[in-house]
Amino acid sequence: MSSAAWVQLVALVALLAVTTPVLGSYLARVFGDGPAPGDRVFGPVERILYRIAGIDEGREQRWPVYARSLLAFSAVSVVFLYGLTRLQAHLPLNPTGVGSMTPALGFNTAISFVTNTNWQNYAGEASASHLLQMLGLTVQNFASAAVGLAVAVAVIRGLTRRRSATIGNFWVDLTRGVVRILLPLSLVLAVVFVSQGVVQNLHGFRPAHTVEGATQQIPGGPVASQEAIKELGTNGGGPYNANSAHPFENPTPVTDLLQIWGLLAIPFALTFAFGRMARDRRQGWVVFAAMFTLWIVSALLTMQFETHGNSKLSELGADERAVATQAGGNMEGKETRFGPAASGLFAASTTGTSTGSVIAAHDSLTPGGGGVALANIMLGEVSPGGVGAGLYGMLVFALLSVFIAGLMVGRTPEYLGKKIQAAEMKLVVLYLVAVPVVVLSFAGASVLLRSAVSSAANPGPHGLSEITYAFASAGNNNGSAFGGLAGNTDWYNTTLGISMLVGRFLLIIPALAIAGSLGRKQTVTPSAGTFPTGTPLFAGLLVGVVVIVVGLTYFPVLALGPLVEHLGS
After folding, report:
1. pLDDT tens by residue, 53-90
2. CB of 428 within 8 A of CB of 393?
3. 3-state SS class at 266
């Protein structure tokens, strides 16, 4: 890799090292039981919202009530957003006159943004009005991220409270997540983006005349404001079809670095918040270490695969060397201003979270690079995962790890002083199998359907990778895609929408049930039989459990897709 690639990676790691404890400490105080920074500013705003909505902020909820509130909010959000997609042709702020979406596409889009997936079977500048972008998609970028935050905080409360029947108030957690965290951070980041040249206006297409005498249509739109929450909320749905590869969304190396930081910042900071709220910072650092290990390994692998290129092309005379006039490596599907290393870093980061924004065509990654991106998604949003979803996903793996350790060495399966028993393990298993079942079932059905197979642009192993990537991305609420799959069909719009629902809510409900079950328990005093969980040994065990569980689940399809393609390239 070039020195510039190493500088970008080191700068990103340094930025995360600085912001993780600062932002994590703030998150812990916002969702803690005591006073929080900004109470004088945010408190009156929140109380007005509670009064309008009829919410008693001092009344906490049991986990079933918390879950029902979350599901009701999400259901209303889906209906509202679906209505906007179907009626946008008749609504204002539509300067380019785009038409309404079809029922299947509207269904897919509404579910996609409400579940924090942001899968897009459409080109943003050609299929979404400014009103839909602002009132529909951007609002859901905030709301869906805040829902994930709320669930993560509820799970932390379940782990840390003693004999508590409640895990918090969903409406309060949702409001605080938006008002105190996502809005302020997005405002600052959007202003920085505008200063770097990211577009922010209400224009439609404007004609521009090139030096060769041709006419080109230049799109406008409220881009910077959506771009900020797109990354900070680990959403990924960009206003333009090229996403963050578009120069109006991501024009400079500074914006590129900040976009990668934005999608990683809150997931990593939540681990520090977890340690603070658990009153044992070692526990937070263990989770951070596991997430960081998975992310940095995948980033280095993808960057190496993309910078080395394809030896078969070199044999045919293609020059893939890095010299002064070219970046070298695999440049197919990449922007020349970013190059293969930066594209690999972005790809590993966006698939390690549930973001889905891209600066390169993932379908054009090398087989090895594309395989790492696909495996990242299959990890289930834990490296470091989406806002909230990454933390509660890794905590589920932590419960599985202490249970496995207990079986292997005869230690008592305990986590943070709570005994892990049959009730919790049944919920853990449900959490872990729900997504693989729907991903592999729909991918298998698609391979058998001639009409579904015809949507894949490539035959053989790469075509299988395209189909599998689509359902893995939807089921794990990522949203990125192998562009070789034409997903805007009734089959894919419907099945991908179902996958998104399963990947979001059939994981949230077991996670909240685990929180409720553990919250009712009394903590036990550590004994000689207690397996310590605040150590590097447990961090290594946690990483191993994640890799082994995912490997056992998905290795056959990975072997038939990316691995076969890599060995044959």
Report:
1. 999 999 999 999 999 999 999 999 999 999 999 999 99
2. no
3. helix
Cα angle at 150 between 140 and 163, to 5 degrees? 160
Q: Does the model's pTM come out above 0.85?
A: yes
Q: Whose CA is closest to 384, among 542, 556, 157, 179?
A: 542
For residue range 366-395, list pLDDT tens digits in order: 889 999 999 999 998 899 999 999 999 999
Peptide bond into 92 cis (omega under 30): no
Rounded Cα gap, residues 85 and 77, in angstroms: 12
Q: What is the pLDDT of residues 320-344, one digit of tens each?
A: 666 656 677 888 889 888 989 999 9
Tokens at 120, concatenated: 């897009």
Q: How many domains does the structure of the chain reveal?
A: 1
CA–CA separation, 235 and 477 (whole Å)? 9
Q: CA-to-CA distance for 368 and 370, rounded, in angstroms?
A: 5
Instruction: Enumerate the β-bridge partners of residue 209.
Output: 215
Cα–Cα dist 271/389, whole Å: 12
In a domain, 212, yes or no: no
For residue 210, being part of any structural domain is answered with: no
Q: No. of H helices and E strands in the chain?
A: 22, 4
Helix axes 460-475, 422-448, angle to 10 degrees: 140
Structural domain boundaries, residue 10: 3-205+218-568
Dist CA 11 CA 3 (whole Å): 12
Q: Do the domain assignments include residue 51?
A: yes
Which candidate, 380, 551, 368, 384, places its Cα nearest to that of 465? 368
Taking a C-beta distance cutoff of 8 angstroms, is the pair 331, 339 a contact?
Answer: yes
**Structural contact between residues 144 and 151, judged by C-beta atoms closer than 8 angstroms:** no
Residue 32 domain flag: yes
Please give the C-alpha separations between residue 303 and each of 198, 365, 390, 507, 537, in angstroms, as whole numbers. Answer: 26, 10, 23, 31, 28
Backbone angles phi, psi at 472, to 5 degrees: -65, -40
446 in helix, strand or coil? helix
Helix (H) or strand (E) run with residue 208 in it: strand 206-209
